[in-house]
Amino acid sequence: xxxxxxxxxxxxxxxxxxxxxxxxxxxxxxxxxxxxxxxxxxxxxxxxxxxxxxxxxxxxxxxxxxxxxxxxxxxxxxxxxxxxxxxxxx
Length: 90
Known about the structure:
It is a single chain. The chain is mainly beta. Helix content is 4%, strand content 14%. It contains one helix and four strands, in the order ββββα. It has one helix at 72-75; strands at 16-19, 36-40, 52-53, 64-65. Strands 1-2 form a two-stranded antiparallel sheet. The longest helix has 4 residues, at 72-75. 0% of the residues are buried. The model has no long low-confidence stretch (mean pLDDT 85).
């Protein structure tokens, strides 16, 4: 199975799109496939809520907590696979 991720096309979360594909070789382009019309746009996750200081914070370690993104709107209709933490001083 081949996949193609396309962007930007000004699509937003939950837009319904219709997709067709055709193959091309040195002779020319083949016929278009049947239309696949139950495709829903997925987008990057939404903004995170602020982190909070966790109860396990000590003088030598920082413990932070944050609410996980769970709704389809928050996750962009895709499973969140990682969170990144940025730490600064000052």
